[in-house]
Design brief:
Elements lengths: L9 E2 L3 E6 L3 E10 L3 E5 L3 H4 L5 E6 L9 E9 L2 E6 L3
C-alpha cells in the first residue's frame, strides 16, 4: 500500500486534554503528530466521538501553558482516533 500522506508523522507520546462539547474533558495520550494533525489513543473513541465533530485540545505537562487548538475528528482505528488541526 502506498503512503499518500501529505505530511510525515513523528512519534510523540504526550498527555493531551480534549474538550468535547457533550462529553466534557478527556485526558488522552498521543501516538504521533504531523504538521496537519495528531493521532490519540482512546478507548471507545467511536462511542464518544463522531467523524466531522470539532473538539479543542491542549498539551498537558509542559513548563508553560500550551495553546488550545481546534481539531476535527477524521478517522477511527481500533487503538484511537485521528484529528486534524483546524486552521484560522
Amino acid at each position: 500500500m502506498d503512503n499518500k500522506r501529505e505530511h510525515n508523522r513523528t512519534p510523540l507520546k504526550v498527555q493531551l486534554r480534549i474538550d468535547h462539547p457533550v462529553h466534557g474533558q478527556m485526558l488522552v495520550t498521543t501516538r504521533d503528530i504531523s504538521e496537519s494533525g495528531v493521532f490519540v489513543v482512546i478507548d471507545d473513541a467511536q462511542r464518544l466521538l463522531q467523524i466531522g465533530e470539532l473538539v479543542s485540545g491542549q498539551v498537558q505537562g509542559l513548563p508553560m501553558e500550551a495553546p488550545v487548538v481546534q481539531m476535527e475528528v477524521v478517522r477511527f482505528e481500533p487503538s484511537g482516533v485521528a484529528l486534524i488541526f483546524q486552521r484560522d
